[in-house]
Recover the amino acids of this structure.
């Protein structure tokens, strides 16, 4: 006759192993949820009107009207704030008001 042997899991042999594994799983889960949550917040921000140019204020425009400055720079309302490069606008329009 064959003797039946009882299979003992490693978690039964080491008492704190199950709690440690659960702790590691929870840490990984919350880390992944945090990353995905941050990605969702970034996507919602990029889609929302908060990332769009709402108003344009032209200051120190004694030689040109606001409409002329707007036409020269090419900046418009409701454009993404990440699509506007101030250095390129400055290079493009440098000295136009002083011709």
């Amino acid at each position: 006759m064959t003797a039946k042997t009882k299979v003992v899991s490693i978690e039964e042999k080491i008492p704190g192993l199950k709690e440690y594994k659960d702790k590691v799983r929870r840490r990984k889960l919350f880390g992944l949820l945090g990353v995905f949550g941050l990605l969702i917040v970034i996507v919602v921000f990029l889609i929302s009107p908060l990332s769009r140019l709402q108003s344009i204020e032209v200051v120190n425009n004694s030689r040109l009207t606001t409409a002329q400055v707007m036409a020269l720079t090419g900046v418009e309302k409701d454009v993404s704030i990440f699509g506007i490069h101030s250095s390129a606008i400055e290079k493009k329009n440098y000295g136009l008001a002083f011709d």
User: Anything to note?
Assistant: The chain has two domains: 10-47, 52-98.
